[in-house]
Structure formats: structure tokens, C-alpha cells
Amino acid sequence: MKTYLFGLAVSLALAVGMPAARAQNNQDNQDGIPRLDHVFVIVLENHNSFTSFGSIGILDNPQAPQIRALAQKYNVAPNYHGVWHPSLPNYLAMITGDWIGTDVLGTGHTYPKGSRVGISDDDSPSVATDYGPPANPSFHRWTVQLPSVAGQLVKAGKDWRAYLQNIPVSGTSLANWPGDNNTAKLYAVKHNPFPYVAEIQADPNQFAKQVPIEQLFSDLGSGKVPAFSYIVPDQCRDMHGIGNPLAPCGGAFDTDDNDVKRGDDETGWLVNAITGSPVWQRGRNALFIVFDEGNGPLTCAYDPDHGVDTAPGSLLPGADCYAPANYNDRVVFIAITNYGAHGLQDPRSYNHFSLLKTIEAAFGLPFLGHAADATTNTLAPLLVP
User: What is the pLDDT of residue 187?
Assistant: First the structure.
């Protein structure tokens, strides 16, 4: 995760000229979400919606023309937030409805409402950086004793797959990069929540559903696409960037311009492949583009009730970091559908628990973890038929 000085949020200019999402009855019930045949999720990294005092944004960034065009054409949630820093809590939240909540980035900050996950960091505990030797035995195999949407889908007779760019053939839970000079550190296990989940670790059939991203294109071509596709580009193409000189992304050192441009190109390529496939033309389908977190401070971030950002390293008096109003930086969320109205925006507060709740509702599944909270909104206004 990258951190920057964090200032007052830039106003959401995207709202100008875009119609409000239509209200819908029972939008927080499963009936508020139409049943979907396929859901695709593309996850990108570490950028706010808009640039603010050194924190790099996307929707005002000339290096992201394709994502900006998608945000104008399709449906957006301008008050969508990650749930915490660093990466892994956000990824786990998307599939389990829970998060880490303990010793965030070694800061000593722990909170009484910390979750059952019990992981203290999202990198190898044996090294100071987020990469290490391949298959290093000191890389712990963290285990999350929580149900996941993957397990729910299997029990419901539906399929899922995680499409992961440059995934090492040695296994997803061993090392953060395969270790050769061409692909070193491109794949990061912290950007893939599935190998942390006990029920997936214990089931070889489920574990095998984590596949190279190339299989997405063959699946789209054959029509054998699962109900739920979770797509994660590598660190050169998800806007994270890497510092390992063995595999520089576009130069000796990464720059945010390079990160954003590569991620924008990758996103456009993936969206075109999905929406141009025969699978997309059949049934009712949705594609979500979301960032795991922004690049602001390690504490609670934007407080919409007070119209201010908290200062780095501090909390608003009495702030509850588990309350939706206090989740971290606003990030891009775009909903693309092959049906219904487009060009909508919905100003309600959303987060990764909302995404999980929406996916579960779309497949008629019960809600897990914080997705079941009454305060967790579904994204129904962006998915109306």
C-alpha cells in the first residue's frame, strides 16, 4: 500500500450532467437486485477517485481516459469506500464480509471490534518488504476461518473462478512472486483473498479455481464462464506498481503516471474482451470495476457527515472505524450492465461489504458477515432493469 498526504476531498465533478439513479422499492433486500447470470469483478489498486493534496486520483487523471469514459457512460457510486488499509482486509471483505482489524501495518493500532480473521499483516511476516524468495518456508499459510461467497456458490450449484495475472505455477499461497527475472513480484498473494480461506485451502477442487488470467479469454471464447469471475491484474497492471528492480514496470523506477496508464490500458482491454464476448450478450450480466483502497492515511478517512477528512494518524473524536461513514478514501466504483439504464450515479455510502451483499443477492444467496448489517446498502439503484 502507498500512503500520501491526505487533504480535503475534491468535489465529485462526475456528478455533473449525470442523472440520478432511479429509486427502487426494497433496494436493501434481495428483491431489490435482479437475478444475474454472470457477475464479473475487476479489482485495481491504491488510488482515490479524485486527486487531493498528493493522493493520486483516477477520474480527473489524463492517464486514465478509458476508465473515465466508462464512468461517464455507465453507472457509478461516487461515495464508495474501501474498508481499511492495507490491501488484504479489503480483498477479504469482498468475499467474506469480514476484515482483519488487528495491528494495521504494524502501527500498534488495534480496535475492540476487530474481526475473527486474526491476520496481523498482508505480507510475509519474515521480510520487511512485500516480496520474498519463491516458496520460502517462512511465508505463513494464513488461514481465515470464515465462510466465503465462493463456498456459497458451490453449495448453490454455481461456479466461480479467480483469474489472476502471472499467478505462480507453484501455488498461490506460497510466495508473492515466482522469482524469475521476467515475472518477479508481479503476482501478489495479498491481492488474492481466496487462498486465505480455510474451506478453499481444504478443497482441491475449489483451490484449483484460481487460474491464470489467460484462461478468462479462453472461457469467454468457449462460453464456459462461471457465474462469478474475480479478475485481478498483476502489480504492473493494477496500478499498484512494484519496486523490485528485477521486474520494473516501464522503467527503472515506477511512477504513478506509468502505474495509472498501464492499469487503464489493462482495464479497457479486459472490459472490451468481456463485453464483446457472446457470453455478455446472453442473459442478464454485470461487470464491476472497483479499487481495493485509496492512497490516503491509515486511519478513518472521509467523514461525509462533517464534510472533512481526518488528519493522517488521527481519528475524529469518538469515531468508530467500523461505521460506514468513517471508511477510508473514496474509490472508483463502476457498474456496467448489459441491460437497463446507463449513465446513472447513486450518492449513498457504499463499501466492499455492499459489493458482497449485491453479489449474494444477485445469486439468491444469504448475506455473510457485515454484508448482513442493516446499514450495508446494496448497489440496487445502479442495477435496475
Answer: 78
